[in-house]
Amino acid sequence: MKKKYLYIILIVIIITIIFSLVYYYSKKNSDKMFINTGKEKIEINNVYKNPIEMFESGVEFKKNSDYLIDYYSPDQLFVIVITNPNIDEARINAEKDFLDTLNINQEQACKLNIQLGVPFSVNENAAGINYGLSFCPNGKPFN
């Protein structure tokens, strides 16, 4: 009788592993994904398709000398970090690249959960504030 239960448990574990792998690879290989804003779902290009770095709760999908962009799936949060001291130009480039990479327009972007900030090491006067996207109603200008 004990062997029967062990076989059942083993089969359940194997099936769970297989479904998890299928889900992971289908998510990674799909061209599109959806972000739920609470009011609607916005279709974006899959940020997991060509990751720069994967981590437990998300993915870094853009990185250059001006900015980096991450996505955190538990909160459906996009984080844009300006890494160039010329923060105004870097922000313009980051916002454009964000829209182009996700294949969305400004109106759709303003519905997403986005934090845009500047580290203290880049500009101590601008650090510590969530500026949001400049073209959104909640966007703040750099001081």
Spell out the helices and strands N to C.
HEEEEEEHHE
Write out the strand line-up for the largest beta sheet, numbering strands in chain order.
Answer: 3-4-5-6-7
**Classification by helices and strands:** alpha+beta
Quickly count the helices.
Answer: 3
Beta strands, count: 7
Low-confidence stretches: none
| Rg calc | 20 Å
Average pLDDT level:
91
Number of domain modules? 2
Distance, first to last CA:
72 Å
**Beta-strand share of residues:** 25-35%
User: Which range best describes the helical content: under 10%, 10-25%, 25-40%, 40-55%, 55-70% or over 70%?
Assistant: 25-40%
Largest sheet: 5 strands, mixed
State the shape.
elongated
Give a description of the structure.
Strand 4 (58-63) and strand 5 form a beta hairpin. The protein has helices at residues 2-29, 87-102, 106-109; strands spanning 32-36, 41-45, 53-55, 58-63, 67-72, 77-82, 113-117. It folds into two domains: 1-30; 32-143, no CATH class. It has 143 residues and is an alpha+beta fold. A five-stranded mixed β-sheet has the order 3-4-5-6-7. The longest helix is centred in the N-terminal third of the chain and has 28 residues, at 2-29. The termini are far apart.
